[in-house]
Amino acid sequence: MYPNRPITPSTLNIKDLPWQIQWSREKCALCGKCTAVCPVNAIELGVFRKRIVKTSLEPQGASVSTFDVYHGIRQLTDPAYACIGCAMCSMVCPNDAILPVRSDDADKLRYHVDRGGHPRRRGGRRNVSGGVLDQLKFIRISMLTDPALDAGRHEFELKTLLGRILPPEENLKFLKENGWIPPVREIYPLIIGGMSFGALSPNMWEGLQMGVAYLNEELGMPVRISTGEGGCPPRLLRSRFLKYVILQIASGYFGWDEIIHAIPEMKEDPCAIEIKYGQGAKPGDGGLLMWHKVNKLIAAIRGVPTGISLPSPPTHQTKYSIEESVAKMIISMHMAWGFRVPVYPKISGTSTALAVLNNLARNPYAAGLAIDGEDGGTGAAYNVSMNHMGHPIASNIRDCYLNLVTVGKQNEIPLFAGGGIGKSGNLAANAAALIMLGASGVQIGKYVMQAAGGCLGSESDRCNICNIGHCPKGITSQDPRLYRRLDVEKVAERVVDLFLSFDTELKKIVAPLGRSTSLPIGMADALGIADPAAAERLSIRYVV
Asked: What is the enclosing helix (H) or strand (E) of 54?
C-alpha cells in the first residue's frame, strides 16, 4: 500500500485501523470499481509523486533525480471513513489488485468512534466468541434399550405446536363458556424471526417470503416467518400466502392501520400475532429505522412521512402497566381476528421472564412466550447495549421450562427461544440443545441473512453497517443501486437449501435418541457439558 493522507489531529495512522487496504500498483487497471463499490468511502483515487534516482556509469558521472507522477489507490485514515473489511473491493476488482487485511495490532479506532457527541451504533450483533450452546453435547444414545433410528430412511415428525394447548376437558369447558377454543397451529420448529420490511431491502424480504412459500407449497414443511415491526406490504396481506406469516406488532405500531383495515379483505388468517415487548440485542430499548431508509414505499406501508427516523418507544405506552398491556393487547388481537389466530408476546431475555410467564400461565388467551437472548442481532443498536446488556438464552429457557413443570403446564404453553442460535454455524445443534432445555421451537434472523443474502458481517467486527443503509450486498439497504445486487430467486433458493440442510442435521441428532413422532422437548437428560457450573445451573449432566 502506498502512502495515505498526511496525519492530522482528526485522523489516525493507517496502522491504528482494524482493517488495512493492500493494493498492488502493478496489477491495478485504474478502473475505479473498488472506489465506486466501497460502502463507507474508505478508499479514493489519488495522484502520487515518486522520486527516481538515476546513477551514471561514468567514473565522474553525477546521480540525477527524476520524478514520476502516477495514479493509484489510497486509504483514508479518518475514523469516519474507516475500512470495515467487507472486501467488496476485492469482489469487483478484475485483477485481484486490492484486498483488506485484518490488523493484529491493538487498534485505536475504538477510542475514536464516538464522534459529534454520539456514541457508536453498530449493525449486526455482539462481537464475542464462544457460548454455552456450542459447548453442549448430546450424550444419550439409544442402542439396546430404545433402538436408535435410521436418520436417512426413517420417517420423522419434526413439527411443533404454536398456541395454547389445553387438556380435552378444559377445552370442552372453555368452549361451553366462551363459544370457542384457543387456536393452535402446527408449524416447523425453526422460525424466521422478525426482520422488518424497511430494515431489510425489498429484494431480501421478497426472497425470504418466496423461500418460505416454496417450503410450504412444494416441500410440505410448515415454515413460518415473522414480519418484524414494520408492517406488511398490502399485496401480501391480501394473498393466500399470509397463512405462512406471523404478524408482529411492536411499540411503534408501524403499519398496523393498514393491517387492521385489510382484515375484511384477507383471504387467509395469519399464522399468529406476535406482540413484541423486547429484543435480546438491546433489551429495554425500542427499534429504530434510520431516516435514510424511510423512502416512499416504506413510508406508505408504515403510515409515516418520508425521510424521518422512526424510533419505537421502549414499551407499549398506550397502557398503564406491562401486565395490563399484555392482557389487554392479547385479548384485543384475539378479538380482531374472531379468536381464530394465536397471540403471544415476545420479550427480551431477562431475570423477570419468570414473572411474565407466571402471568401468561393464568391467562388462557396467551398462546405462548417467545424469549430473545442477549446474542440476538439487530440493525441499529449502541455498542453498550449489544456488548453489555441482556440475559443468556439457555438459562432463561431452562428456568421457564422448569417453572412450567412445577405448575404442571409444560405441555400447555409453548416456549420459543432466540438469540445467537447458529452464531458459530452450528444451527441444528444449537436448536436441538434449546429444544431439549425446554423450547418448543427456535427463532433465527442473522443466520438467515448471512446464508441467504451473502451477508459479509462477522463476529470480528467485519462490515456490521446494517444501520446506515449502505449494506454492500443490498440486504439492509433501501438504495436501489445496492439492493438490485440481490437476486430474489437466488435468495429464495438459499432459504430452501438452509431449511433442508437443517432438517437433515436435526434428524441426525434426534434419531440416536430413538425419537421420531415428536420433538424431544425438555429431554435434558440427553445433554451434557464439561463445565460443572453450567451443568449445575442448567440441571444437566456434567461430563468430561
From this structure: strand 43-54
* Separation CA 259–CA 231 (nearest Å): 7
Low-confidence ranges of the chain (pLDDT < 70): 1-10, 106, 127, 129, 144-146, 318-322
Task: State the pairing for strand pair 369-372/415-418.
Answer: parallel
pLDDT of residue 2: 47
- Closest by alpha carbon to 124, among 375, 314, 454? 375
Q: Give CA–CA dist 403/413, Å, rounded.
A: 11
Beta-bridge mates of residue 45: 73
Residue reference for cell 437466488 = 490
Q: Is 142 helix (H, G, I), strand (E, B) or coil?
A: coil
The neighbouring-strand residues paired with 347 are 371
Q: What is the pLDDT of residue 6?
A: 55
Asked if 420 and 391 count as a contact pair (C-beta separation under 8 A), the reply is no
Give the three cell numbers for residue 150: 435410521
Domain boundaries, the chain: 14-118, 132-542
> Which uninterrupted H or E stretch holds 492?
helix 488-510
- Residue that has been written with the C-alpha cell 498526511 in this structure: 6
Kindly give the pairing relationship between strand 415-418 and strand 441-444. parallel
Tell me, letter by letter, the H, E, C secondary structure of 259-291. Answer: HHHHHHHCCCCCCEEEEECCCCCCCCCCCEECH
Rounded CA-CA distance 347/194 in Å is 12
d(CA 348, CA 253): 18
Render pLDDT for 380-408 as a digit per residue (tens, 0 to 9): 788 888 888 889 999 999 999 999 999 99
8-state DSSP, 475: S
Backbone angles phi, psi at 17, to 5 degrees: -90, 145
For position 43, what pLDDT does the model report? 93
CA distance 23 to 1: 5
DSSP-assigned states of every residue in 420-466: STTTTS-HHHHHHHHHHHT-SEEEESHHHHHHHH-----TTS-S--G
The pLDDT assigned to 8 comes to 59
Give the burial string for 352-361 (b: 16+ CB within 10 Å, else e): ebeebbebbb
Burial 282-309 (b: 16+ CB within 10 A, else e): bbebbbbbbeebbbeebbebbebeeeee
Distance, in Å, from the CA atom of 405 to the CA atom of 437, rounded to the nearest integer, reads: 12
> What is the model's pLDDT at position 9?
58
Give the single-character DSSP code of 166: -
Distance CA 130, CA 200 (A): 27
Strand partners for 346: 276, 370
Does domain 132-542 fall under CATH 3.20.20.70? My reply is yes
Return the CATH number of 14-118, one of 3.30.70, 3.40.1800, 3.30.1380, 2.40.30. 3.30.70
Inter-CA distances, 523 with 52, 78, 140, 154, 437, Å: 74, 53, 10, 21, 7
